[in-house]
Predict the structure.
Amino acid sequence: MNKSLTTLTFIFCLAGCGDPIGAPCEFSGSGFTASDNCRHRCLEHRSITCPDGTVIQRPKICSGARQCEPGGCANGQACYHVSDPFNKESYCLPNNLCGPLSAEEIAFWESSSKAAADELIAEWEAKKQKRQPTAPTPSAGADPVPD
């Protein structure tokens, strides 16, 4: 078989390997060798806040594409931003994860999850800035440092 064809087949297999969005998932192994059965990300260690405020703890499902924006997921999916002060994470999720939702409810869910994640990151950044030491200012009447 042609070497380039074999390489292409291997690359397509890697790109398509793993379970699709919404499939049940679980991690195996631990530490740096941990892996899951998902094409994108296993949401075993995340919680999802639904539009009505209910929280799904550790949904244990495979996500869709990462780093999405509201309105950017395929039909039947919604872009959900994870509230994490250290990482900007977003994933396409099945839009019926929280039950049947109208198009308006899906749009609200997408925008409100992004707003909540952005707010949490901004709060963390503000706290981090307050903890940063400030440069000392020269005392009044002190001689300036020569160049």
Q: What stands out?
A: DSSP finds two helices and six strands in the chain. The chain has one domain: 18-130.
